[in-house]
Amino acid sequence: MIARQAVPLAIAIGAGLLMAVSYFLRPLGWMSESASEIFNVVSAIAFVLGAGSLLKANLSTISRRDRGWGYAAVTLGAFLVTLVVGMGKMGVNPSPSSPQAAWSGDQQTAETPFGWIYEFVLSPLSATMFALLAFFVASAAFRAFRAKNAGAAVLLVTAFVVLLGRTYAGVVLTDWMPGWASGLRLENLSNYLMGVFGSAGNRAILIGIALGVAATSLRILLGLDRSWLSREGGG
């Protein structure tokens, strides 16, 4: 068990130290580029393994007729169609330069089969998901934003001002204010809250994430964190 974990642990520590050192030492930049290329190869292999896992899971669901197997069939069909279109490099049909060759035109435009899938399948589905998500967010906000104390009251008022300031109704409600009080208009007040307090909160979150990434990286480089090796490798 120890020998089986020593090799991947040494590779992880060596690759991590290589990337860190090459970032500060310019002559070693080529080593960092080589490591990035190796990472791309490993990522491609991971995509293949992920596709195999997707096929296996959905085929098992369909064969057993588990609950929701119809969704698995739709997922599997969409995956296979997208895979064939993408791997086949199907371009615009017909191609102006080669009208006799099917699907031989440009492969990067919206007129291609892959572009059609993105434009008329993926984009509408994404918009639908976000539209449904808005109702869940509104419902959760209604339950959470209850002025039980001073902090909750401030949060409730701030959320109300930001949400109302982003709509046309907020512009109409405070349009009567004179020029010297334009900063108190809901649309301007909403932009101020998002630009000042919102940006400060986002930066604090990003700094916390960066510190967490640095701490986790150090634990892996020092061999203190081995949870990624196996269930028995946690330390």
Structural class: mainly alpha
| Overall number of domains | 3
Instruction: Give a short account of the largest sheet.
Output: none
E-strand count = 0
Mean pLDDT: 81
End-to-end distance: 14 Å
- Tally of helical segments: 7
Q: Estimate what percentage of residues fall within beta strands.
A: under 5%
Computed over alpha carbons, the radius of gyration is 27 Å
User: What general form does the structure show?
Assistant: extended
**Helical percent range?**
over 70%
Secondary-structure element order, N to C: HHHHHHH
Low-confidence stretches: none
Task: Describe the structure in your own words.
This protein has 235 residues and is mainly α. The chain has three domains: 1-87, no CATH class; 92-137; 145-235, no CATH class. 71% of the residues lie in helices and 0% in strands. The chain contains seven helices and no strands. The protein has helices at 2-24, 29-64, 69-87, 113-144, 150-165, 168-173, 186-221. The chain is extended and about 65 Å long.
Q: What attributes does this structure have?
A:
mainly alpha
Tell me briefly what this model is.
This protein is an all-alpha fold and 235 residues long.
List the SSEs and their pairings.
Blueprint: H1 2-24, H2 29-64, H3 69-87, H4 113-144, H5 150-165, H6 168-173, H7 186-221
Helix pairs in contact: 1-2, 2-3, 5-7
